[in-house]
Each structure stands twice: as C-alpha cells, then as structure tokens.
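Box S2. Input/output pair 1.
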Amino acid sequence: MFEHMEKSTDTHTTILADGEPEVRRYRIFNFDFDSRPLTLSDEPGRDWSEESRAIWEQSRKNIIASIRSDYGENGLTEKIDNFRDFGAKPFSIVAHHNVMFDHVRTAFIGGGYYAALTGACALGERILNHMMLDLRDHFKATPEYKKVYRKSSFDRWRQMIHTLVAWGVLLPEVSNDFLELERLRNRSIHFTADTATRLREDALCAIGYLKRILEGQFAGFGLQPWFISGTMGAGFIKKEWETHPFVSHYYCAKSCLVGPFHSLEHTDAGWQYVDYPSYHELCGLTELTDDQFKDLFNDRDPACLAQRDKNPIL
C-alpha cells in the first residue's frame, strides 16, 4: 500500500451496534514498515524505459535526502550503506516493539554497531517478557503457569520460550530464531575478546534474527495459522483464532471487525472503515465461513461497497 510508513495508521475500532460477528472478520491495518532500503539495493534493469529509470533515480535521491535529514550529514556515505544493509523494516503490527526496533535501526545507521547489537538482543528478551506477562493469566490451568505466575520479569530465555511454545503462543520457527538470538546475546554481552572485531557483522546477524521474529510472530499478513489465506491485499483473522489469547491481545484488540463489503477511506482523521450496519438486511447473511468471507471479499463488485455518505464510519 505504501513504500514507507513510520507510524501506525489511524483507524477506529468501534464494533457496529448489532454486531453480526459471524459475518464479520477482524482486518489488520495498524502496521509499521519501511521498504525504502530495497530501492537503494536495486539497480535499473536493461529493459527499463527512460521514464522508469527517471522515476527510480528520483526515488533514490529522495531516500538519500531523507537519510541526510534524519541522521545527519557527517559520514553520510557510511550511513547510506548502513541504511541499505539494515534492509527493510518488517511488516509488523503496531505493538510494544516498534519504537525500540527503530532505536536499534537508528544506532546501526549511525555506526553504533555495539549499541545496535546489544539493543537487538535486549529487545528480543523484552518481547519474550511482554508476551509472558501479557498472556500468562489465560493459562492458569497449565502445568507451566505455576513456574511463571509470581515473577514480574524473566531473564531465562529458554524457560520463556519453552512456556510460550507449550501454550501455543510462539510459532516453532520463531522459537528457533529466539534461541539463535539468545546464543548471540550471550556471546556479545558476556566478555568475549573477539566481539569487538565483528561488531557490524554480529549486529546485522542479531537484526536478522529479530526481523524474522517480528515477521513470523507479529506479521500484518502472511502464512501464519491465524490468517485467512488467499485474501487479496488485506489480512483477516480466522474466526476460530479470534479467542486465542495471543491473537486476541495483539491483533483483534487493535483491529476492526468488518464485513466483506466494507470500504476504506482516508479522511482528515486518518484511514477509516465504512461498513453496512446489517448484512442480514443487506443480503440475508447471518454467518459466513472463512472461505466464504474470502470469496465474497475477493470477488466483490466495487459498486456494492459501503459508501461514506450512506453507511456508518467505523
């Protein structure tokens, strides 16, 4: 939708009065990303038109100007290289990690490689702590709960990872990335003589693990089991996952419950959803499976979408 979005989108999350939850699904729209580094990594293809080359060159100049403005003139060439090598920020839902991830990026771009390295490792631990503290009360009946319910913070990564996997919160591939980040964290923070010789390399490695964690566990859309697969250009939560503690806390609480014929409009107040107050009155619908919702959303006629001057703004 956008090449660069530093802040969350501004949407309202009020559910319609009559609800019709079996017809509606939570749509993900509050996310953060920045794909500008990809432009710096690309080169014009041989078959590009002159117009395409001119657009690419202007985009590249604009990105460099923004780097100069955001991070300063001194050492600009190195900062441009670091911005490019850091890579794109992942499409991540807006949660507690976004601002601190920006701090890691700022440190790396500015050449503060050890700060970026340790910051990425510390943020990994903080994410684990947040998930543990945010979600543990939902798992009081589990054997793991008695080991974690008293603490206000945790520093044993493997205990947190094991517990969150047992609760069905952490995805398996994400847990592996956390374990790799923990190994790098221990080697970087506890004294190792060669750490100082590979700061940039290790910082990029830690950042890579952290990116995969955010892309895997906090993605705005993708192949995660809680997303309805195949919806075009948008991410929606499966009905059966709406009550899962992780999905409910991190996704549904910050998303809007909409029907398949809703529309999205930009106003002075930001992006807002417009939807029909009743799908039962509109077309007799009282419930939809996830596949039926997907088909209606993908195949909808633009003329049938809810309109601002006729329907409520959510």
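Box S3. Input/output pair 2.
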Amino acid sequence: MAGVNLGIDFGGSSIKAGLVDVERGRLGETISVPTPVPSTPHAVVEVIRGIDARLPGAAAVGFGFPSVVKQGKACTAANIDAAWIGADVGALLTEALGRRATFLNDADAAGLAEMRFGAGRDVPGTVLVLTFGTGIGSAPFIDGKLLPNTEFGHLEMRGGSAELWASARVRTELSLDWPAWGARVSEYLAHMERLFWPDLMILCGGISEHFADFAPFLKARAPIRPAALGAAAGIIGAALAAA
C-alpha cells in the first residue's frame, strides 16, 4: 500500500501497532499485544514479527522505544530489560521483517506526530512534548525541528528522578487522585519552565485522554495542551519516522 507504514509503540504492559497513512497522519487498523516477560530483544522481535504478519502491506516499519537511540542502537535501559543496551535494533528488525525498519525513541516518535498532525502543528518557537507513562519521556522542538534523545524525565527532583515523582505509573502505584497527581505534574512542569521557557507544552501518553480531570490542577506560564492524537501519537510518529 503506497504511503502506508507500520508504526509500533513499545510500552511496559503492551505493544501497540497500526497501519498509518503517513501523508495524512491517519491511523488504520490497529492491534495491541502484551509485552513479553522478560522483554528481551529476541522476545520482542518475535512479537513484532507476529504483528507484522497480522498487519500486512506496509512499505516500511517504525519502532518507538523507551531508550536513547544512536545509529539504530539502544543506549539506555531505564525502564526496560538491560539486554537492550547495545542492541542494533534497526538491523534486527530489518532482518526479521525483510524490509527497512527505523528505530527511535518513543517520546521523539510521539512528538513527531503531534508536531506534524496534532497539538503542535504550525506552532513556532520552543515546544516541549512530554509523555507520561511508566516513566516521563521528552521531545523538545524549536521551530518544528526535533532535538532527539533528551531525558528530561531523569532530571533531579526531590532527591530523585523526576519520573519517580510525577509519572503516570506513580499515580497508579500510590493511588493518587487527580488533584494530588496534578500537583506533582505541575511541580515538574514548573521545573521545565525554569530551564527551557517553552512556548507550548504538550502532554502525551494514555493519560492525555484524562486531561480534563487533572488540567484544573496544573499551573504554568506556557499553554498546556493534551495530545490531539491521544494514545495513537506514538504509533503515528513511528510510522512517520520510517517514511
């Protein structure tokens, strides 16, 4: 199918994938499968092979993953199996699937989608895309150009990593209500503003679908928007990167 790529978004509990019209940013058929345990490179590649068989016809494949990615290799493993470090994932997928596969940071993927088709479309200046899930991912853009592989979720807050204070996982583990979690996110966003003075902040991840519940508890100088593409941003952005 011309102009259609397969986008894959790796998560701690599930791997989501879909066929994407990369010219229009439209998501077609999607599937979600449990993340294997342990989630080693070999196990995940086998799952992706199965996904590819269930969603045939894509010209290329994009894989968004929670790691710093350099020259197709995973360099960090903060919330994933340590066996990923040093793995040439781009080459593994290309060999397994028999066609070109692009490997990139998952927050960068979501950011690419939101800047092209979503809440950041045509927004100039500094836009900070933040993903809230198992950790906190980040993707800063300056006049639409991405600075890849940032790790703003690991900035120090309250004596530890910021994502240990304000991620969506922390909300679930501590059974925080929306006001309590919103206050934590607001504190984190204030930290981002002191460092980067963004013109817009976009909040991504599944939590964006609950934006109305916690938005009243956020305080920031810059406008804050939920991901217009919702939880699909990572899938669409991965497919875009493969294009």
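Caption for Box S3: The mean pLDDT is 95. Residues 190 and 242 are 34 Å apart (CA to CA).
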